[in-house]
Each structure stands twice: as structure tokens, then as C-alpha cells.
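Customer ticket, subject: "Can you confirm the structure for dTDP-4-dehydrorhamnose reductase?"

Message body: Hello, I'm evaluating your service for our small team and ran a test protein. I'd like someone to confirm that this is what the system normally returns, since I don't have a reference to compare against.
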Amino acid sequence: MKVMLTGANGQLGRALQELLQQEPEVTVFATASKTSALEAPFPVTVLDITDKEAVRSVVLEEAPDIIINCAAYTKVDQCETDEENAAKVNEDGPRYLARAAKLVDAKLVQVSTDYVFDGKSEKPYVETDETNPVSAYGRTKLAGEKAVMEEWDKVFIVRTAWLYGDGKNFVKTMLNLSKTHKELSVVMDQHGTPTTAIELAKMIWFIAQTSRYGIYHGTCEGSTTWYEFAKEIFNVFGKTVLVHPVTSKEYNAAANRPEYSVLCNCRLNKETDYRMKEWKEALQDYAEWFQKKGGK
Ligand SMILES: NC(=O)c1ccc[n+]([C@@H]2O[C@H](COP(=O)([O-])OP(=O)(O)OC[C@H]3O[C@@H](n4cnc5c(N)ncnc54)[C@H](OP(=O)(O)O)[C@@H]3O)[C@@H](O)[C@H]2O)c1
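Agent reply: Thanks for trying us out. I re-ran your input and got the following:
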């Protein structure tokens, strides 16, 4: 079976490469944007998913069985002032991939986000809940979901949240700040679920081998706030940092974020026996993996 990864040098892309390397039946064809290709830990072919013709010809040539799109414009605040480019990567690229997937009858996994919701709910969002993004990032990711569903049937949409793995992320930011700060202020009024890239990769790989197409929520189990998450990171990594809670208003980021974006993995839990780990357990695994890698 041939699996094509796009954006393979991002956090999720790297986790999938690690995971799929252990699958004897799988050949991975990994692609990444030009810049990321230069520093990739695994060999990659250059493919910009916003290049319609390149996407078409690469997919026709490689004829993968499954395409997993890990490429995205993920800088949430930057999207506010660069929505046009964000839409190219988060909407147009996925559309081209879906069209190309249809040409070779490949399944497509499109990864999406909790930020498609407005965060006004008081209970975990289910897959069928109404979307209403409050940021440019959320709008472009929602447009990406719609685009792939318009183009092709054999599509899985997996919405995840607060992702961290091998790359820039909240955990690494906290660990870096702990080297220079004894006290930090962290947002306490946004609720969500930290999810490791490896837990997401495993879930995606499980679901991609089925024919149960459609929308899934795929986050670790449980929920927390950024403030509580930061405290747990320092606890697990043995750092002494005093964390102060601040409101989103005080923090004043460029993009609005949903106050409550906890996702229920309802469909996964109802229709399959696959379960994602609890977020604190996944954080422990991450700490072990991080230390094995020499803390980089
Ligand atoms: N990170 C989170 O907290 C989070 C939360 C919810 C959902 N998600 C979703 O989860 C998925 C994976 O996120 P992630 O954290 O792994 O993202 P990431 O680490 O930022 O990786 C995204 C990758 O996409 C590549 N890329 C960007 N533009 C591209 C283009 N035009 N063509 C090909 N590749 C391109 C980037 O490469 P360059 O930067 O080198 O161009 C980067 O390697 C995304 O769909 C994201 O929206 C993430």
C-alpha cells in the first residue's frame, strides 16, 4: 500500500512518518513545501500543495492508495493579516488534492481543527454540531473541509486540537521560557484538549484503513485550559516556574480563539473500538520521547 504524505515535515507529518516506517506493508511517499524540505529528518520530495498542476501530476505519477494531507497554514495570528495566502494553503490546496485523489481513486485524509467552532458551547462539540469560526484560520480550515467534500467522496475529515509533536508548539515554548523565566502568565479562559501528534497519527492511520468516510473528531481524552496545561508541563518536566492565570483579553492575541473548543470523539467512540489516550498520559509519553531525543 502506498501512502502519500503532504506537509510531511510538520509535526503531524513527522509523527506519521515515524509511525508508518514500522508498517511493513506500507510505502511512504513524503512531500513537503520547499522551505521545509531543506531540513527534513526523513527524505521528502518537494510539493507545494497550492500548485494545482504539480499536485495533479505528482498524484497521477505516484498513484497512492491513501493521501494524508498534513500541510496547512497553521500560524493562527498571522492568518488574520494574511487570509488570502492562508486560504490558498488551507482551502485551495486540499481541493486540488481531493481532485487528484479522485483521478487515482485514492482515499484522502484532510486534517482540520477545533477552531471551526465559535466556542460558545458548554459541552464537548460533536461532529455534527454547527460550525461558526471566529478567526481567519478557522474560516480557511472550514473552507478546506467543504472543498474536499465537494470534490470527492472517499474523504475523511479529522478535526484535532492543541497539537504538539516534533516542531514548534506550546510545550516547547513553555520549556524554552522556563530557561529564562521564574514566573509566567498563561491564558486561563480557553478550554480545549492538548493532543500529541503521535496520538493523532495513530488515530488517523486507524481510520484511514476503513471505508467509514466523513467527519471525525480526533483529540486526546479529557480537557483543560492553557494555564492548567502549562502547570502540568512544568510538573511533568520537573521545572520550577510560577504560573499566573490571565484572561484572553489581558493576553490580547491578534486572532480570536474559541473560549470552549473541547471536542467529543463521539463518532470514533461509537462506531469503532479505537480509543485515544487521556491528555495527561499522552503528555507523559511525549516527555519520554522528548528526553530520548535529547530534549530538542
Ligand atoms: N498545531 C495545532 O495546534 C493544530 C490544532 C488543530 C489542528 N491542527 C491541524 O493539524 C494539521 C497538522 O498541523 P501541524 O501542527 O502538524 O502543522 P505544522 O507543524 O505547522 O506543519 C504544517 C506543514 O505544512 C507545510 N506547508 C505549509 N504550506 C505548504 C504548502 N503550500 N505546500 C506544502 N506544504 C506546506 C509546512 O511547511 P513550511 O512551513 O516549511 O512551508 C509545515 O511543514 C494541520 O491541518 C493543522 O491545521 C493543528
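A couple of notes from the result: DSSP finds twelve helices and 13 strands in the chain. The mean pLDDT is 96. Feel free to reply with more questions.
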